[in-house]
Design a protein that fits this description.
Elements lengths: L1 H8 L1 H31 L3 H29 L1 H15 L2 H4 L3 H33 L4 H22 L6 H19 L18 H34 L6 H29 L1 H19 L4 H16 L1 H9 L7 H29 L2 H25 L2
Helix pairs in contact: 1-2, 2-4, 2-6, 2-7, 2-8, 3-4, 3-6, 3-14, 4-6, 4-8, 6-14, 7-10, 9-10, 9-12, 9-13, 9-14, 9-15, 10-11, 10-12, 11-12, 11-13, 11-15, 13-14, 14-15
């Protein structure tokens, strides 16, 4: 856990990692209040889904313009500006008085999220190159940890506050203040120019395979959020609420743990090897999930979490090193591809589940993991 030790002992790295945690602290806080906000606004599940789509759409729309903004502001400044905007933006959904107002507020949150995502991942990529360290996977581990803090602590403390808005104001303010204080450790960081300023398909061509794998992996992560509990209930016939919720719990815990160890494994075996072996572990996990046994399926969710935990950070690491492409552009491409998968994957799986079976949906995830493994194996053999 050398990368985790670096983050915990070096203010520069901790400041950046805390940005990752901060995003998910706010998202986790928002998550515990979604039912209450929907009830207050008198909106149904379909209307809530539309509002959440605007959150996703805002994030996706923010990705293409982020490299330009990062280049103008500098990496350090972009990161603290991004997380500051994110803190402020996430207060507005709690102020919404209508469905349209909620959708507009979440769209603004999405824009800030997309910009922050590119800035913080590019900053880590440049720090790794500049300082000759590997902390990308551990930084993403802090993102996973932030979700646990946001939802876990929020579940305990939120009843002590009179309104959801009051609690969110306290959380957002604390997160903002801590990030401003920590930003002095990285705010001066800038990105060296890696691009000649002209778009060239041959420069971006190596990114398409990485983008495909990001799409598949993020589609799987989205599926775990939306479908793991239903799969355990409907397919493996899990008998208790504890067992039904255990699939995503085990998946999340294993993903967090895997990311804290991922940098050390990557340093030893290399990015391509860790992605390929991670996919093979995930494939094994899907086979256990498809076994039909509740306990084996829960173990399978854990294996998928461990195997896939390191893949997205490694894809960002590779995307930030493509010759002739600025790190922010490469990472933006990977992030956009992955986020499309996160959005479209669960919808496609829902279609399969409705018109065929939920089991077929998870077979599709298994096939996707196999395709991703073959793609990365081919790239490794080709030496690209």
């Amino acid at each position: 856990m050398r990368s985790l030790k670096l983050i915990l002992t070096k203010p520069l790295y901790f400041g950046v990692a805390w940005v990752f945690a901060s995003i998910n602290i706010l998202i986790g806080t928002w998550a515990i209040y979604i039912p209450e906000i929907a009830q207050k606004l008198a909106i149904n599940e379909g209307q809530l889904g539309i509002s959440l789509f605007f959150l996703a759409f805002g994030t996706l729309l923010g990705l293409p313009v982020s490299p330009y903004l990062v280049g103008r502001l500098g990496l350090g400044r972009s990161t603290i500006v991004g997380i500051s905007l994110f803190c402020v933006a996430f207060v507005f959904p709690f102020l919404a008085t209508s469905h349209i107002g909620l959708s507009a507020a979440l769209f603004g949150v999405g824009l800030a999220s997309g910009f922050t995502d590119i800035a913080m991942n590019t900053l880590v990529s440049e720090l790794e190159a500049k300082k000759q360290v590997q902390i990308m996977s551990a930084a993403h581990g802090f993102f996973s940890l932030g979700g646990v803090i946001g939802a876990g602590v929020g579940s305990i403390l939120s009843p002590l506050f009179p309104t959801p808005l009051m609690y969110m104001l306290v959380v957002a303010s604390l997160v903002l203040v801590v990030n401003v204080l920590l930003s002095r450790n990285y705010i001066a960081e800038r990105s060296p120019v890696k691009s000649d300023g002209h778009f060239s398909f041959k420069h971006f061509k190596p990114l398409f395979a990485l983008g495909l794998v990001a799409f598949i992996i993020m589609a799987s992560e989205g599926a775990m959020v939306d479908w793991s509990g239903l799969y355990l209930e409907k397919v493996t016939l899990a008998q208790t609420a504890l067992l039904i919720g255990m699939g995503y719990t085990v998946f999340s815990a294993c993903m967090t743990l895997g990311r804290f160890f991922g940098d050390e494994v990557s340093n030893r075996f290399g990015s391509f090897a860790i992605i390929i072996y991670g996919l093979l572990i995930g494939i094994g996990g899907y086979l256990l999930i498809l076994s039909g046994s509740t306990l084996l399926a829960i173990g399978g969710f854990g294996l998928v979490g461990i195997g896939f935990s390191v893949i997205v950070p490694e894809l960002f690491r590779l995307g930030g090193k493509v010759k002739g492409v600025a790190a922010s552009q490469g990472i933006s491409f990977i992030a956009g591809s992955g986020f499309l998968g996160f959005l479209m994957g669960p919808v496609f799986l829902g279609f399969l589940a409705q018109y065929a079976s939920l089991r077929l949906s998870f077979i599709a995830l298994l096939v996707g993991a196999v395709i991703a493994a073959l793609t990365m194996s081919y790239k490794k053999i080709k030496g690209s």
